[in-house]
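User: Second chain of the day. Same drill as before.
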Amino acid sequence: MLDEHVREAIPERIRGLWELAQNLWWTWHPQARRLFRALDYQAWRETTHNPVLMLQIIRPERFQEVAHDPEFLALYDQVMAEFQEYLARPPLELPGPVAYFCAEFGVHVSLPIYAGGLGILAGDTLKEASDIALPMVGVGLIYSQGYTTQRLREDGWPEDLHRTLDHRDHPLQLAKTPEGSPLVFEIPAFTPSVRAQVYVAKIGRVPLFLLTTDVEGNTPWDRAISQQLYTTDLEQRLRQEWVLGVGGMRALEMLGIRPAVLHLNEGHPAFALLERLRQFMGQGLSFEEALERARKTTVFTTHTPLPVATDVFPFALLDRYLGPYCQEHGLPREAILELGTNPTDPGAGFNMTVFALRLSQHVNAVSKRHGEVARRIWQGIKFNDENVKIEAITNGIHLFTWIEPLRVQRLLDKYLGPAWRKNPENPEIWQRVEEIPDEELWAVHQERKEALIAELVARARKRWREGAFAKNVLAFGSLLDPHVLTLGFARRFTAYKRPDLILSDPERLKRLVNDPLRPIQIIFAGKAHPADIEGKRLIQKVFQLAGDPAFAGRIAFVEEYDQHLARFLVAGVDVWVNTPLPPLEASGTSGMKASVNGVPNLSVLDGWWPEGYTGENGWAFGGEEHHGERNPQDAEALYRLLEEKIVPLYYERGPDGIPHGFVRIMKAAIRTVAPRFCTRRMLREYLEKFYLPALGAEKEGI
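Assistant: Same format as last time:
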């Protein structure tokens, strides 16, 4: 096998590099990242920070060199000792693990099976569970063609590219049964039969089990089930979610894992509840008893603020799979169909969110504002004549992933000490941010900004060598200036996000970017869903302005947006812009990532920002209710904040050349956002509010 061949090529003295590369723990530990950079910096860059692929392409002579390099060996021993100590910490004592199901997991760019915010949240959750030793397993799918990568044509239209994922080049290992054989099994209720194989990615202490049907022996139609994330074919979408939910639960059972709690992150994996019912009925419970036990041990997190954004499958289509499944396992088909029927639109079909709401006693929205919206749109959903209760647990970010490691984390270590790493949700610790000298924080920020622009220039140069048009290369950020106030907008391009709000008045914008003394520049990045034509038009609109000489090269659109680029952006721009159409931003976490790096938010008061905004840690607008067309009003508020507040504050320098007023807001952003909007706080809330009550119910066998 290739794995064994590569491992054996590494000298025994440093053979732990292979084990380290296979566990994504290294992605949020700076010294481990430093170790791989020291091994071969060129290979590190060429593989986009993928140690598994690095170890396959490094020449044998280089391994021999570092195996006799005292400096490298000292770092290697330090990292491996920390790694082994981390893995050896005893887990929390629980009756069984939490099984966290999600359609996508964004752990790192070296495992490209995610589309955006939902996946990044899922990845951050697994990392935090590992950090606090919470027994958890993740369950998802491998997408052998990944999510779309988009490159721009000469006219700025984004074209979708799918790159085949070779399992051998990523941190994936075959999952094995307790008997030691690779886990391959048939998905229930598929005719003809469909085989699934299971891989595991190690996220620190947490195993992430990933299913694929793209295996030999399946027909091309069946192999395609797990090829593309969020396929637009309705039946394939249903089959994909059936494999995720039913197949995911069946895989855990065959691995000998008995989850005490199910946590469904959005409605896509809700079919897992069918298997949960089957398993409980197999223990001798009646359907009603199994239903009650499943409800008390299930957590459901809803992310969408719109009922039309949920997955709804026609009853006839669903019945091709549900009918045989119920017949084989003795489940009441009509009762299950009823559980997935929305009373406000009973003829629409089987609603995955409604099904999950009814079968989960513990339900949450992802911000307080979203909780209000979710309770309103799902108020008609009842179980046993009682309204489904929806609480709010606001999303958080994994600080050790998103706080820039080379300079920002070191600055925090210097002035906050080790306490911020041990207890990141303690606000008293973060008060010490005020002790950081303005000149040090500003110097670190400027370095991050220069690193961002250097990265964009390197990307543009690479695309130029690949034959990109000169106009495109200029639009990718080649003319950006690190001394100019830089705004960042990076997220999925879709109409409700309103990426073009800041472009509403081109003449006013020209004055802002061309001001001879106090100019601004804007970096846009993001992808549109392959089927979102309006989102693609928005990308094209931004691109065309970026190429307009009247804007002096101070508007840029960066293609191929991914987690790697996001880390540069959230630490490198000066102000993070967020302009969703309220109340359509369920939470949003990109602004949290920017804030903890000292990049203040300029945001509509929607999602998490109404909880995060203090009046001193950024800028806010658009929080009031507004009926009808609100873009002109919001655009005016956005421009006025830039012209009257942000631009003057940024360019108002003391004798030392530092904008002390702006730095004061940077410090407030770090100090107020880090403790309240971290995954440590988020996961503690899940544990206290949902997991422990659910675990109690499971322990009692209710």
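The first helix runs from residue 2 to 9.

User: Great, on to the next one.
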